Amino acid sequence: MPEALLTSHPFIKVALPVPMRTLFDYKVPKATALRHELQPGMRVKVPFGNSSRLGVIVALSHTSDWEHDLVKPLTSLYDEAPVISAELMALCEWAARYYHHPIGDVIFHALPVLLRKGEKAEFRTENWWFTTAQGQAFSLDQLSRAPRQQDFLKAAQQHPNGLSQQAAAVLDLAPAAGKSLEDKGLLRREPRSFNKGGERHAHQTQVPPTLNPEQSRATDHLLDHRHHFHVALLDGVTGSGKTEVFLRLIENLIKEDKQVLVMVPEIGLTPQTLKRFEVRFNTDIVLMHSNMNDRERLDAWLLAASGHAKIIIGTRSAAFMPAPNLGLIVIDEEHDTSYKQHEGFRYHARDLAIKRAQALDIPVLLASATPSYESLANAIQKRFAWLKLRNRAGNAHIPQMERVDLRGKTLIHGFSEHALASMKLCLERKEQVLVFLNRRGYAPTLMCHQCGWIAACDHCDVNLTVHKRANKLHCHHCDTQKALIHTCPECQSEELFTVGEGTEQIETQLGTLFKDTPILRVDRDSTQRKSAMAKLTQKIHEHDQAILVGTQMLAKGHHFPNVTLVIIMDADAGLFSSDFRGMERTAQLVTQVAGRAGRAQKAGHVLLQTYHPDHAAIECLCTLGYEHFAIDGLSERKSLSLPPFFHQVIIRAESSNEQEAMQLLTAMRNDLEPLFAKGVYLVGPYAAIIVRKAGQHRALISIKAAHRAPLHEATQRMTDWLEQSTKHHKIRFAIDVDPLET
Ligand code: ADP
Ligand code: ZN
Ligand code: ZN
């Protein structure tokens, strides 16, 4: 580094994991060698208040806005090279501005937990055992009185390239015996970097199928645009071969030595998904998801950062994975709401990925059978290329959707007679039925027959869900759990009964209706344990006839080739909700669940139980399909000035006091509204649909504008105002840019 630079940066600007939207200045001690080494993206230890903190250097600076004598010197440096590349630093800075979120929190979100805690950015080391020359020639008979040492030396002699600690453990060799052999000069130990941590060596075993004409067209288009920023929406019905298309694209980029980031929904990363990559590529694949421990995550992060891992598959937070040769980002099931973080740093991984790709000048591929209205609008306006696959790959057919009118019908455990008769026929053909109900637990309500008491959460304005198997009452909003009771706390009556049904109840009742049929429930409760989902899918594949009962978990990513009948128990639930996104979500869910039927050779059939068979929306979805439905929905959004045609920011506030959150937002509106540019609209403040959650009273205000610039300016003013006003209050506030929920 030139001499001039050494002395010209006496200050650094540091991001700290604190809820303040600012960087902190520190001095670089004059006489140290540190100045040579400092670079943005490195971690430093700095004094903060009465203690010290780990921070990340965001910039080197010639000056400080603070009185220079008040600026404290940094304490020490953690890294010899940046842990956040310039590329990712720029992405974090953009995200902090766009989402109006504290920069420190954004940068720390981008780092694996262990790096936030000061762990070295290095692969863990592991001891390896080697024989010495003496040890290699040593006769094992001489160790006959020390059988453990004999075993150990024998194994070491058989592994002239060394025996890893892990391998020694697998072979059941005693470390103490190794130590004794080391003392005798027969073995030596050497620490080696464990850089094969989260890595998977794939082995290409599968010959790819010949693409059909639709797939070829899409693939050719994507290949033509593979070297520059280009967003394509691969809009293909379930089973149309979207994955096959992006595997082709990935194959080409890997040949060019690029890295590829594949994003999948939170619970969409099934063993089946991974398998598809493993059988196709002779390259290293790393995973990044919430089921990995901190060390596994750091190893995966390091493999990606080193450029070694060519394919990186991960959920939301993988949008921040380092990848020095990144050449493509794929976002599978791009409509999935798990890409949006709903608390803390409320970013959308899809939007962030697009921004990242733009900065890197690389392509992004969004894939879905039910694209989000946002992406569809972009495709219609030609900002995204729109690649359609309208036929199922191979010989599979699109399932037929039939409405079942529930009006005036007698229901048996929530099923119409028609649904039950169809199930019976399906099972007789030795095929599988999928029953979809987006409500887990046994029943959503527990009530007293004598006095009408209802079991409600003490901390939220919601009823407690009955979970019979676990013998619990459970709040699905704050996670409060209580023992299931059998006596009314108000009137001591023992006549408590449940209202409504959840998946657990349906499972039980189907068991009495279809006695010899295996019934498998798939929801958050039945898949809590780590390998539970894998076991369930295995069971599903083992049986011929079976009934699967589940929530939206069943709609994601799984292939159940023998499912030929899908029953949507309650199609009305989401369509008539108060949220303007209810229609979009329900249509996506119904279409995705329906898409599980008839994926192999057999034709599929979907029954939609509804009290509104003639409702235009339901009719459109059943007869014309998702695309029509969505285009109608978009024109309605346009006429109502709703997203994606208007941009929206929601500011949420919560306080333990019943009034405070509402009062704060009202005061803010009164102070600031006169200052807003024309075309910025405020709605509220109003109470959240569930006002009290986890003991906090929640209020919100919505800001809308046709253009981003005035909206962001208004948001900035409000953020500043709130930061000032809440300094001495216990009110928490959050900014939600492009919110997905109200
Ligand atoms: P999607 O991702 O759209 O749901 P997939 O890529 O998973 O679709 O394809 C569905 C099934 O069809 C898979 O089993 C896949 O191997 C198979 N498939 C895909 N493309 C073809 C093709 N061109 N010819 C034959 N089978 C195909
Ligand atoms: Zn009672
Ligand atoms: Zn609660």
UniProtKB/TrEMBL annotation:
Any one of the GO BP annotations: double-strand break repair
Any GO MF annotation of the entry: DNA binding
The keyword Transmembrane helix appears for this protein: no
Domain Helicase C-terminal stretches: 483-650
Principal EC category: isomerase
Pfam families: DEAD, Helicase_C, PriA_3primeBD, PriA_C, Zn_ribbon_PriA
UniProt xrefs under SMART domains: DEXDc, HELICc
GO cellular component, one term: primosome complex
Catalytic activity of the protein: ATP + H2O = ADP + phosphate + H(+); Couples ATP hydrolysis with the unwinding of duplex DNA by translocating in the 3'-5' direction
Keyword hit for Nucleotide-binding: yes
Cofactor notes: Binds 2 zinc ions per subunit.
Positions of Zn(2+) 1 binding: 448, 451, 488, 491
Cofactor: Zn(2+)
Skewed-composition ranges (Basic and acidic residues): 182-202
Subunit (UniProt): Component of the replication restart primosome.
Family: Belongs to the helicase family. PriA subfamily.
HAMAP family xref list: PriA (MF_00983)
Annotated protein name in UniProt: Replication restart protein PriA
Species of the source: Marinomonas hwangdonensis
Organismal lineage: Bacteria, Pseudomonadati, Pseudomonadota, Gammaproteobacteria, Oceanospirillales
